[in-house]
Amino acid sequence: MQSLSRWLPFLRWPRPDAALLRGEFAAALTVAVVMVPQSVAYAGLAGMPLVTGLYATFLPALAAVLFSASTRLSVGPSALSAVLVGASLTGLAQPASPEWVALAVWLALLSGAIQVGLGAAGAAWVLNLVSSPVLAGFAQGAALLIIASQIPALLGLQGPLASLWQSPQFDFTALAYGVGSVLLFVAGKRFVPRLPTVLLVLAGAAALSWWSGYSARGAVIGALPVGLPAPYWPPLPPAATLAALLVPALVITLVSSLEMAASAKIESQRDGKRWDAGQDLVGQGVGKLASALSGAFPTSTSFSRSAITLYAGARTGWATVFASGVVLVVLLFLTPALQHVPRAVLAAVVVTAVAGLVKPGIVARLWRIDRFEAVTALVTFAVTVASAPRIHWGVLAGVLLALGHFLYLRLHPRIIEVGLHPDGSLRDRQLWNLTRLGPQVFALRMDAELDFASASAFERTLVDYLAAHPAVAHVCLFALPINRVDATGVEVFGQVRKMLAARGIHLHVSGLKLPVERVLEKAGVLAPGPLLSMYRTDAELLAALERLAPAAPKPG
Q1: Using one digit for the tens of pLDDT, what is the confidence trace for 248-289?
Q2: What's the Cα-to-Cα distance from 133 to each of 121, 359, 397, rounded to whole Å?
Q3: The STAS domain covers which part of the protein (predicted)?
């Protein structure tokens, strides 16, 4: 049973009682009133038929929570995933056409399969490929593009956004609906946050649109199908088209996984439990596969809706089950009520939801932490905006830049000459303006692994110093920071020892960790000799240097 619950986490849910179910149902209603209008709006952002937003909320949320370790994640359409779908398919088909839907389903199948595979293989470390600055830069760029894409509908602009500068024509009724909705959403969030403002505004706008006759002549959602989604399997596209979907599917996988991680970590910290990233990846992948089989697009975890679920008092996955039940009721009975909602109101839903992603101060904060991190965020942002609609290149550019910087740091490890600080610690001699440990002593510390990436830098530092200081008689290696050594490191260490022995220089090594020491011993480069001294601690090495003072003149 225990092994079965490992793959089916819902078997570990607590047995429900009346009090638990009441609390879970209340939390479900709280998140559902936000989830339903957002799902419909994000479907339009993805270029999909609007009803597929509800399809992507019903079964995917239920499937994901059954297979996830984190039970209070709100799975469904999200702004970033939706805009990635729309951007990835631009030029491959007409939005909302059967071909577009089929390609969106393939994106869901591909990204879902990748997530399930990563989770089942225990490869959650792949998430580390996308750093926080990369995601921040992409989110800023994507948010601005999303807002720009919604401005025509929000303002009732007749034509594309560029027509604002070329004798624009407005539908002033749509403009009133859009701007009025934004003002009401902002006021509701600020003054009455517990009120379901989004749902109330949509209901009021639909009623006003119907009563005034605007729904008969203006831009509204229109009729939506009633009922459950039929099982769907997309036709196989041409090989070239399928290949063009691979990179976007990978980017959707990474971005949605990071959206999931942001919410899941908060949940695990609040519960005081270890986050099971692998199982949550499986759950997210299963959710995407369920969305594909419903004829919808890739889902993700909404950070804002997950926060609502958590802070509304949800304790288990039963809240998501009840929320799916609410969506079921909407699909079966309430979709006709949405047909009168003006599209300007739907644009307002997207704009107000995405506005939270725009954080202008994030680059300044990153600059204070690390300038290269800030540059990474800026480059990701710039490539995201410049490559629109192929905005997935923004994420890839950021990932490559971050990996390149990581590789540079590995190839250029921090190797310092140490001196004795007045507080008794060993610190960077140049940085703290400290004296040498001895007149003929070169004391160094490498804050890195001794492997193929850093070994040559270690050897070069030593050779350069000895060339500039020929009187050196003792080389002290404070090796405590070295956690690992590979074949290249062993070879270089052996070469260094032979070079020092040939010059009559005594090598002192302190703090060598047991795993590293064993590798060096097996390779035969730690064989005892008159010019090699090993010390368990740095203090032992310093005491030995004191006994050597004043250092004897170097032979020859």
Answers
A1: 999 999 999 999 998 898 888 887 888 899 999 999 999 999
A2: 27, 12, 12
A3: 439-548
